[in-house]
Amino acid sequence: MALLAPGVRTSRSAPFLIYWSRRALWALLAASLSLSTVAQAHPHEWIDLRVRLMFDNEKRLTAVEQSWLFDPFFSALVLDELLADRPDRRAIARQAEALGPEMVSNLSEHAFLNEWTFDGAPIDGLNGSFVSARVTRDQFELTFSLDLDQPLDLRGGQFEYSVYDPTYYIEILHARRHLPELRGAPRGCQREIIEPDTPKDMTDFAASLDQTDASDERLGIHFAERAIIRCRG
């Protein structure tokens, strides 16, 4: 299997940087420079994902709310108060609230790193909105809502979503033992998370990449979980 598919664009400028805010961009650049002498295999950031599917009074899907809990290293980079000997918790909260909307805005240019389908057909045109940002146990958590243009009746069909960074610089996995939550869903819905079955050559390729290496922009899909929701007709 070819690691770099024909026609796939790669770049030495790490694409992950534009997902976040300008403040996060410069912090991560500084971190990359400080770690440049050490080989660092992909991924370099980690996000624990929690998901809530929101249904209306007619039991139709209207939105998917996601909470992303960033690893402590990234959190400390973008919220400098976390590095202080005696961090000011109010200042941290203000920083987080100011940072969150900009991050959501930047993610909108990349489909929020989400792929959705219903019965195999792609769902496009998601509208994202900032919900909240907070710091818990010295980790930054961003919550935002992805709204559908029109409510979607899941009964009798299969809804599927994946959340991943195409370059696999960031690993995004559901938090341990956390299935997607269904709020107001019709009866009889089943939830399942399918772990990735990553080919060994892809795993080896990711392990060979360091901070400055370009990666296949479809590398991340091989490490992505698939969440499936089936509702009875």
Write down how many β-strands occur, each being a DSSP E stretch of 2 or more residues.
Answer: 11
Return residue spans where pLDDT drops below 50 for at least 5 consecutive residues.
Answer: 1-15, 35-39
What's the structural domain tally?
1
C-alpha-based Rg, rounded:
18 Å
SSE pattern: HEEHHEEEEEEEEHE
Q: What is the percent of helical residues?
A: 10-25%
Q: What structural class results from the helix and strand content?
A: alpha+beta
From the spread of the alpha carbons, the general shape counts as: globular
Please tell me the overall pLDDT: 83
Report the sheet with the most strands, covering strand number, pairing sense and barrel closure. Answer: 6 strands, mixed
Strand content: 25-35%
Number of helices: 4
Termini distance? Answer: 40 Å
Task: Please explain how this structure is put together.
The protein is α+β, with helices and mostly antiparallel strands and 233 residues long. The protein has one domain (18-29, 39-230). Helix content is 21%, strand content 33%. The chain is built from four helices and eleven strands. It is globular, with a radius of gyration of 18 Å.
Concise structural overview:
This protein is α+β, with helices and mostly antiparallel strands. It has helices at 22-34, 72-78, 89-108, 200-208; strands spanning 45-55, 61-70, 114-118, 121-123, 127-136, 139-152, 158-163, 170-174, 181-183, 190-194, 226-230.
